[in-house]
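> call design_seq(struct)
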């Protein structure tokens, strides 16, 4: 019997604090998530890679699970 591949879920991420004056690495994480400006919301796949970026800049984001 073959195991079914589990597809990653989605996470809704919103930028709630400004990127100005932040570390370049933190700005790069925010841009890597696809966020461009304040109060911009995107949905990204819930993978270990994106979870790491979210964890690094969690103080600037609001994160919600998408069902």
């Amino acid at each position: 019997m073959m195991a079914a591949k589990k597809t990653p879920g989605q996470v809704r991420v919103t930028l709630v604090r400004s990127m100005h004056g932040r570390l370049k690495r933190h700005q790069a994480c925010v841009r890597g998530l696809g966020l461009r400006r304040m109060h911009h919301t995107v949905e990204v796949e819930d993978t270990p890679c994106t979870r790491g970026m979210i964890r690094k800049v969690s103080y600037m984001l609001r994160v919600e699970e998408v069902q």
